[in-house]
Amino acid sequence: MSDDGERRGAAANARRLALFLQVGVPVASGVVALIATLILVANDFPATLIAATLALAAIIFLYLLATLLWVHLSAQGPIQENPEILQLAPALTGATQLAVTVQGVVLGLIFAFLRNRTATVTIQVGAVSLVLGVVIGLLLYMLVAYEVRAPGCLLMAGLLFNLTIWCAGYGLSCVACSLFGTQLTASG
User: Fold this and answer.
1) Between the chain's N and C termini, which has fewer beta carbons within 10 Å?
2) Residue 97: CA count within 13 A, CB half-sphere
3) pLDDT in tens, 162-179
4) Domain ranges within the chain, ordered by starting residue
């Protein structure tokens, strides 16, 4: 009887951790991005950086909405006791390779086009975000290239993948907003 109670307690703790990683982390991250946007506005940072940071908050909240929808839709389907978690490693590996490659290419293009010119604050922040995305993506690739053995590993891989995508989204938003900087500052 005691072992059964301990298993239920461990399962409840695992569900709470999963809920925190799937919902709590994105909510906190999105709120931090919104607060950062307000701080940037209050301190007269370039409109391009403000727009990119606001875009990051939107990306995070869209991710959260998609996650909640995914959980709802998956609850409608058949329940499997032991899903084939091992089959997810190749998919995560491929998606991570793509994310790292895109970020690396964009970083290369930024430096190729800048040459001897000084980068704007928005481009600098975007480049740092892309570098972080590459580093986190490489860490994730190293972890999942071998295999994903347990649901806890899958949650951690999902969190690292989300961070990689958020870094890519923010970096690309910074670059895009910087390209249209004259239009953003002229209307502001």
Assistant:
1) N
2) 8
3) 889 999 999 999 988 888
4) 2-187
